[in-house]
Write a structure and sequence with these properties.
Elements lengths: L12 E7 L5 E7 L1 H10 L3 E4 L4 E4 L8 E8 L6 E7 L15 E4 L2 E4 L7 H4 L3
Parallel strand pairs: 1-6
Antiparallel strand pairs: 1-2, 3-4, 5-6, 7-8
Length: about 120
């Protein structure tokens, strides 16, 4: 297997996350070498959180985990595609199934989906 090129992107590689069954794009996050190894070891999506500056095991707070069903690597070895089983119904911290719940329309943003859960209750903030 061609190694991922973590140095090319400053140590972080973008990971596009897609529902394994429907093909819906759920989110995009970043993976460093440690998150990559943890994902491979556990079979659960693990990312590097730039805001927390640490590993982020998807669902560690919300319970909305992502089980890896397939992994694809692009031709340059600098982007990952995780095809996942989304546990808990929502990938987005806003409570939406997908982070891509808004579309550009008439010069503004329009929400296309309703939240699946209330993030204030889940994250206790």
């Amino acid at each position: 297997m061609k190694e991922l090129d973590f140095e090319k992107c400053g140590g972080l590689i973008p990971a596009i996350v897609q529902d394994f069954e429907t093909g819906e794009v759920l989110m995009m996050a970043y993976v460093n070498s440690e998150a990559w190894q943890e994902t491979l070891r556990t079979g659960c999506a693990t990312y590097f959180s730039r805001s927390r500056n640490r590993l982020w095991r998807k669902g560690e707070e919300s319970g909305n985990r992502q089980l890896i069903r397939e992994i694809r690597i692009d031709c340059d070895g600098d982007t990952i595609l995780f095809k996942v089983e989304q546990i808990g119904g929502a990938a987005c911290h806003t409570g939406h199934r997908s982070c891509f719940y808004r579309k550009v329309q008439d010069g503004g943003l329009v929400e296309t989906d309703r939240p699946v859960f209330d993030p204030g209750k889940v994250y206790h903030k």
